[in-house]
Design goal:
Largest sheet of chain B: none
Oligomer: heterodimer
CATH topology of the largest domain in chain B: MetI-like fold
Distance between the termini of chain B: 11 Å
Order of helices and strands of chain B: HHHHHHHHHHHHH
CATH superfamily of the largest domain in chain B: MetI-like
Shape of chain B: globular
CATH architecture of the largest domain in chain B: Orthogonal Bundle
Number of helices of chain B: 13
Number of strands of chain B: 0
Number of strands of chain A: 0
Chain lengths: 268, 326
């Protein structure tokens, strides 16, 4: 029976920080700063969520995060799908080179390039704008999107497309009517990882957008704790609000996500 | 990922136009078709070259410039040859941070791989219900956004009212009741490592478990018939199957941990006294914080070189393998 016992201990270890975030967010301040931890919130309050939501610029940053993330994901899906189709379905010179190139791009050291990116964006006079963020995030998630979609396109039997074309569809129509619907699950799992990456991105936005109106939620959250001192209730409420979209997405798409990630990340 | 076998572009050539009239497969059309893949690739390629390639090139150029606040404001370009590199490489700080980064990566990756593998093997041993239970826990930890997780760890390890200090105090370690985790280098690193290992284990464990499910059961039966014990079965059957997966994951973890900017930065900004700066944070603080942009770029370039060196071995295997496969 020891494996079960170990599993329970591990479960507690992995879930506790997540649990503690939510639990703290719902506890009255008196229960948070108490000599003995209140393990289960009995006296539930929404006051901390109110503090977080009413904090300066909260809704602006929610808007910014959503805009940048969704646009980056959509753009990278569109241009990634075009390339994925070429790489999966066509034979041409330099095909291997492109694939290897995008695999290398997937390992790009974004965290290290912030200074160079800062200089470029400043020279373009685009600091504190959402445009460069969107474009950089798009390129950040592009290699993964493209290489994973290539696998999904390749998995669609060529015969389906061919018979559609025999029936009078152009190649484009065959793609839109036959392949695209079959790619829906692939597009979903790929966009999930794109979404997570862009939603979480921290170094670039930290450097590029210093003005409150142009920040996104990760920078807001990292600054929140400083701004609110030791108001752990509000800080944990803010962290919860930031984490919920991803937690929900992940739990729903967990199974598909796992296989998508191993395929895409490990073997490009 | 499977690589499909290639066939010439279209089976039945696209002789059918949208209006249903057969088109003539004349020369211009042929050319258009041979250009098609390049046209399809063009947007992705252009975007990558501009937004990834250009910063890389730009970083290289900046690293040979004397670029501080003055030059920055006046938009001056002052080339200074290899002065930045000379200064970085002859200084003590860079080597200290490099050593620290490598040790940091080694400790994290070793812990992640060992514990992750053990948890993965445990998942394979558990019954269905218990396994689903543990998987849910792992997925929740995995899905936590980095900055949210970092904020939660600040709270767990808070000096006052932090639950970790309370537990240590109750466990009889009374000197920890009011311990300031962000007060020293080692304890700050302890929290960062705890955080990174906690966040990274699910990826390794879940994928390793998935990998074990494809091992043919007959191999274990055959091994048992040959009188192999549990350990022998593990080393002779399980391990060889998992080896490629373990290499790949270790490689990915090295890359991810080496670049763990967000966790270190958001937890304590590389403090106290800059003692927990790892290379990306060091490049950031020298470059952006102290406004020695050229120096920062030089450190960034060296960081990329070190990262490549750390992963070159595996990168070569992957690239070679891909070429064989394609």
């Amino acid at each position: 029976m020891w494996p079960n016992a170990v599993a329970v201990v591990l479960f507690i270890g992995f879930v506790f920080p997540v649990y503690w975030m939510f639990a703290t967010a719902f506890k009255p301040t008196g229960d948070i700063i108490s000599e003995n931890p209140v393990w289960i919130p009995t006296d539930v309050t929404f006051e901390h969520f109110k503090t977080a939501v009413e904090a300066d610029h909260f809704w602006t940053m929610v808007g910014n995060s959503l805009t940048v993330t969704l646009l980056a994901v959509v753009f990278s899906l569109i241009i990634g799908l075009a390339s994925a189709f070429a790489l999966a379905r066509m034979r041409f010179k330099g095909r291997k080179g492109f694939i290897i190139g995008f695999m290398l791009a997937q390992m790009a050291p974004w965290e290290v390039m912030v200074i160079a990116i800062y200089m470029i964006v400043r020279d373009a006079d685009m600091l504190n704008s959402l445009v460069p963020l969107t474009l950089f995030y798009m390129v950040m998630i592009l290699p993964f999107t493209l290489l994973t979609l290539r696998g999904f396109v390749a998995a669609v039997p060529r015969e389906l497309e061919e018979s559609a074309m025999v029936d009078g569809c152009s190649r484009m129509q065959a793609f839109r009517r036959v392949i695209l619907p079959l790619l829906a699950p692939g597009l979903m799992s790929t966009s999930l990882f794109g979404f997570i990456t862009a939603w979480n991105e921290f170094p670039l936005v930290l450097v590029l957008n210093k003005e409150a109106e142009a920040k996104t939620l990760p920078v807001w959250l990292s600054g929140f704790q400083t701004a609110f001192g030791d108001d752990w209730g509000a800080t944990m409420a803010a962290a919860s609000l930031f984490a919920i979209p991803i937690l929900v997405l992940f739990v729903f798409l967990q199974r598909r996500a796992v296989s998508g990630l191993t395929d895409g990340a490990v073997k490009g | 990922m499977t690589v499909q076998t290639e066939r010439p572009p279209t089976g039945p050539p696209d002789v059918v136009k949208t209006d249903g009239r057969p088109g003539d497969p004349g020369k211009p059309r042929e050319r258009a078709r041979s250009l098609a893949p390049y046209l399809l690739l063009l947007p992705a390629l252009a975007a990558t070259l501009v937004f990834l390639g250009w910063p890389l090139v730009n970083n290289g150029m900046l690293s040979f410039q004397n670029l501080n606040m003055r030059q920055f404001i006046l938009h001056l370009t002052e080339w200074n040859g290899i002065d930045n590199f000379k200064e970085v490489l002859t200084g003590e700080d860079f080597w200290r941070v490099t050593g620290r980064s490598i040790a940091f990566t080694a400790v994290n990756v070793a812990l992640i791989m060992v514990i992750g593998t053990l948890v993965g093997l445990l998942l394979a041993r558990l019954g269905k219900r218990m396994r689903t239970f543990l998987l849910v826990g792992l997925v929740l930890a995995w899905a936590m956004p980095v900055i949210a997780a970092t904020t939660v760890y600040q709270w767990l390890f808070a000096q006052r009212f932090g639950v970790v200090n309370w537990v240590l105090d109750k466990a009889g370690w009374h000197s920890m009741a009011d311990f300031d985790w962000m007060g020293s280098q080692l304890s700050t690193f302890f929290v960062v490592i705890f955080l990174i290992v906690w966040m990274s284990i699910p990826f390794v464990a879940i994928n390793l478990y998935a990998a074990t499910t494809v091992i043919p059961k007959e191999l274990y039966e055959a091994a048992s018939l040959d009188g192999a014990g549990a350990w022998k079965r593990f080393t002779n059957v399980t391990l060889p199957y998992l080896r490629p997966f373990l290499y790949a994951t270790t490689f990915l973890e090295i890359i991810w941990v080496f670049k763990a900017f967000a966790q270190v930065m958001a937890l304590n900004e590389g403090g106290p006294d800059r003692l927990t700066e790892i290379l990306p944070v060091y490049a950031y603080i020298e470059g952006m914080g102290n406004q020695h942009f050229g120096m920062g770029a030089a450190i960034a370039l060296l960081t990329i070189v070190i990262l490549l060196a750390l992963t070159a071995f595996y990168l070569r295997i992957v690239l070679k393998q891909e070429e064989d496969e394609l």
